[in-house]
Design a protein that fits this description.
This protein is of the alpha+beta class and 220 residues long. It has one domain. It is 35% helix and 16% strand. The protein contains two helices and four strands, in the order H-H-E-E-E-E. Strands 2-1-3-4 form a four-stranded antiparallel β-sheet, with helices on one face. Helix 1 packs antiparallel against helix 2. The protein is elongated.
Length: 220
């Protein structure tokens, strides 16, 4: 029997169901338009901050290993050279080119921090400042002779706080009241640049870490 509109009821029901399905598809597309960007932001965020955390751990491990080497090396003329080699090795997985600078400095105690002036360059009697290019400098040349780059020569990069001037004896008395007697405290500060992959959270950020340890005393 035909309806009052002249269309069989069955056909009218099919048309309504089709319109409902089109409405459901439109709703699903609208929901996807809102959810998809948030989903990708979450995925990229997990990825980005995973790399960020990994690189921060690299910096923290680098300062720890570098400070240990500096402590063991004490007042040996090649102390800073050995410390830089340790730092370079610790940065192998990330790449030493990501390091902006390294400071090896005379700390007043275990709770000290790197002096602000040492973040800009070397300070006589206080710190040595190293850039990535200086990691390429050798201790000896091809003939086995010392190079002018280390061991506190007139133009060496470690001359500002010369390793041979560092307090390593138990009875050493510091001429500076700011520093304690006995073996000196030595600090290693590293600043590196982390580059984000996606750019959603900026382009770069600075990663820093500072580690202080007492120099191991010379054996009597």
């Amino acid at each position: 029997m035909a309806s009052d509109t002249g269309h069989p009821p069955r056909h009218r029901g099919v048309r309504v169901r089709r319109e409902e399905r089109r409405g459901e598809r439109g709703t699903a597309l609208l929901e996807a338009a809102f959810v998809t960007p948030l989903f990708f932001m979450l995925i990229f965020g997990i990825m980005e901050f995973g790399f960020l955390f990994r690189n921060y751990l690299t910096v923290a491990n680098t300062t720890r290993e570098g400070a240990r080497t500096a402590s063991v090396s004490g007042s040996a003329p090649e102390a800073d050279f050995l410390t830089l080699r340790t730092i370079e090795h610790a940065f192998d997985a990330w790449g030493i080119s990501n390091v902006e600078f390294v400071v090896i400095y005379h700390a007043t105690g275990p709770d000290d921090s790197v002096p602000d002036a040492c973040k800009l360059g070397p300070v006589a009697g206080v710190c040595n400042y190293y850039r990535p290019s200086e990691f390429q400098l050798g201790l000896v040349d091809a003939s086995g002779d010392p190079t002018p780059y280390f061991q506190c020569g007139p133009a060496s990069v470690d001359r500002h706080w010369c390793p041979s001037d560092r307090q390593t004896g138990l009875t050493d008395v510091s001429p500076d009241p700011a520093y304690g007697n006995g073996p000196a405290y030595i600090g290693v500060y590293v600043q590196a640049e982390h580059r984000y992959l996606t750019g959603f959270f900026g382009s770069t950020t600075k990663l820093t870490d500072d580690r202080i340890i007492r120099i191991e005393p010379n054996k009597p």
